[in-house]
Design brief:
Length: 340
Amino acid sequence: MAQQDPALSVVVPMYNEESVLPLLAERLRAALDGLTEPYEVVAVDDGSTDATAAGLSGLRQRWPELRVIRLRRNGGHQAALIAGLLRARGRYVVSIDADLQDPPEIISEMLALARAENLDIVYGVRGDRSSDTAFKRLTAAAYYRLMRQLVGKQVPAQAGDFRLLSRAAIEALRDLPERSPVLRLVVPWLGFPSGEVRFLRAERAAGRTKYPLSRMLALAAESVTSFSAAPLRVATWLGLAGVAVCGLLVISVIVAFASGRTVTGWPSILVAVLFLGAVQLLCLGLLGEYVARIYTAVQARPAYFIASDSDPGDTADPGGAPEQRPAADDDPAVLADSRR
């Protein structure tokens, strides 16, 4: 069993990562054992459908610091990350993806920087994305540029979910009412003292990416609508532009009528109708995104459900249901319908 009060917790959300699991365990354990201080690794299995769960169970037999949390269903990367962060017990908590594009070897550097400068947040910033495709680099740059415009300059460019958080920052996240926050925006918004550690981004060690174009677009849409009302202002300006265009068309019609040059004008009518229809549908779509978020908040459904925790201790999530013993499970885990 892991230490009750480890100096460091490392949270690793994973979904269908059986192919990269041995490499991850080898490199991560070597990096953490070198710290010579108590730690725990919190692996969050986000409802994997391959042999990830079996692989984690096998690793846990040989790696006592490994703690396995299994979610009842696939809740998404951010939900799995939140589940691990809020149940981690370390005085410092590092989040890292399982694909080894973020090197575990610089965790010690992040921890040393946080202690030396009394920082609550240390971001792992990608100094080079040459391993990514040109399209991925272009879309990532556009995303961070947009987020910095909407949220502020405190959002570090090229910083994903590889970061170190102090216990104070974790408790601040716990107090937020949001059930599925976009952490790469919420964490800078907290305003804690922060620093950066730069690294070279490597290629994925094994397996396939879990963030195709559709998921990147969904993340961008969720980031914008969860953290800014700017799209609603865009809808307002589009409506004003539509009114202005219609006003100009009315003036042109009056002038044409007064000069006796009235002709059948179906092209202009068609353009006006299509333009106004497009603006109205766009505005309705933007309003719908925000209404959907309100609807989700009113439902108050948890972003994830904990199926089992191999070392639950006394770390219950806020609003969690009473814990129950499973009828049968591979690990001596405790079931809890956990809420944020």
